[in-house]
Prior knowledge:
Elements: H1 2-19, H2 23-38, H3 48-67, H4 69-83, H5 88-103, H6 113-123, H7 128-140, H8 149-160, H9 167-189, H10 200-206, H11 209-216, H12 229-250, E1 257-258, E2 261-262, H13 265-284, H14 288-292, H15 295-320, H16 322-335, H17 339-351, H18 354-367, H19 372-377, H20 392-400, H21 418-439
Helix pairs in contact: 1-2, 1-15, 2-15, 3-8, 3-12, 3-13, 3-15, 4-5, 4-12, 5-7, 5-9, 6-7, 7-9, 7-20, 7-21, 8-18, 9-21, 12-13, 15-18, 17-18
Amino acid sequence: MFLTQMILLLVIIYFGIRFGGVALGLLGGLGVTILVFAFGVVPGKPPVDVMLIILAVVTTSATLEATGALNLIVRIAEKALRKNPKYVTYLAPISTFSLTMLVGTGHAVYPLLPVIYDVSYRQGIRPERPMAMASVAAQLGITASPIAAAAAAVIGIAAKNNAHIGLIDILRVTIPAGVIGMLLAATWSLTRGKDLDKDPEFQAKLLDPEMKKYMEGGMATTLNDKITKEAKTSLIVFLIAIGAIVVLALFPGLLPKDNGKPLSMSIVIQFVMFAAGAIILFLTKVKPKAISDSKVFNAGMIAVIMIFGIAWMSDTVIEGNKTTIISMISSVVKTHPWTFALAMFSFSAFLKSQAATLTVMLPLGFALGVPVPVIIGCIPASYAYFFFCFYPSDLAAINFDRTGTTHIGKYILNHSFMIPGLIAVGSSTVIAYILSNYVF
């Protein structure tokens, strides 16, 4: 029965990926319906805390976009890129990683991608090198963000399993691990592929005047955009909110008590983010419709629906077969704890969300008795959706690279993001595991 249900889950995931967008969530709901009525399984619990975190953070990040503050952040990154174009293969991923850490979502990377292409092309650097790294780093930065749903998922699930894991405990591991993994992957990328002046395919394109004009394009820049008072105000309020979250995580004694215990940080992130958005709304007079019409808001809502359906179905399968699952793999995981990271990575390749992957896998990890240091060390492995190269930021990087060097290969898996992703995630996971043994 468990095998049949797992096959059903994989089929649902396959068609969800094939249709794309909210389909994964809708089909997840269909899967729960089938499990309940055809198999008599009690429905699991949807990851409400994770969904609420995403709603709060995405809404406030969308407010940043609507007020122009997001472009202001991109402008700061662009100045660094254009001032040091020779180092774009390092600076591009550092910029996108930092941007994600700041706003809590990798979808904020899109305005920076055409700038990265323009800087690398004009410097004669193969665009694939910084473009692929920029996309990978943007998603890798999610587990290093204090306001992302991934960290909140870990905190919430750990609390339900009587494991004391705080936000600062997570960030002490994921930030240095993510930065080192990103830099190692960027170092490998420095010499990947042929330089443009030695690439016969690129040189052949230069012979075509129309193609040359297309590749050169117009200079993509945010430097000419007007910096409004509203954008500055919005950014200041947002930074203060993030600072407040970090301070409250460092000093939980400042928080109100709930039955004698400080409020959960997952709840704190929710109301602080909404409060920041409300203050920005009052101070800048931004139109609410502009917030809901923003790209960040649209991408975030799709993510919520995806997680709602597929994580709900996954939890239903796992909770309904927990005894069987534990008996099947507990000995393997206890003998070789690192296999939990492989399982996390495999799920992420299909679920296309770190928060969803952690929501599905962490309850199983605690049920199997996986030690807390191992669980924390495995967090970077929750990012594997570069594997099939169908994620929006990867596709955007391909589309913005007019030279065609950033690409999906003939054999699907031999694409521009595979090796940088494997290096970044693999090294980050190893480093996180080492660090977590010191933190816990």
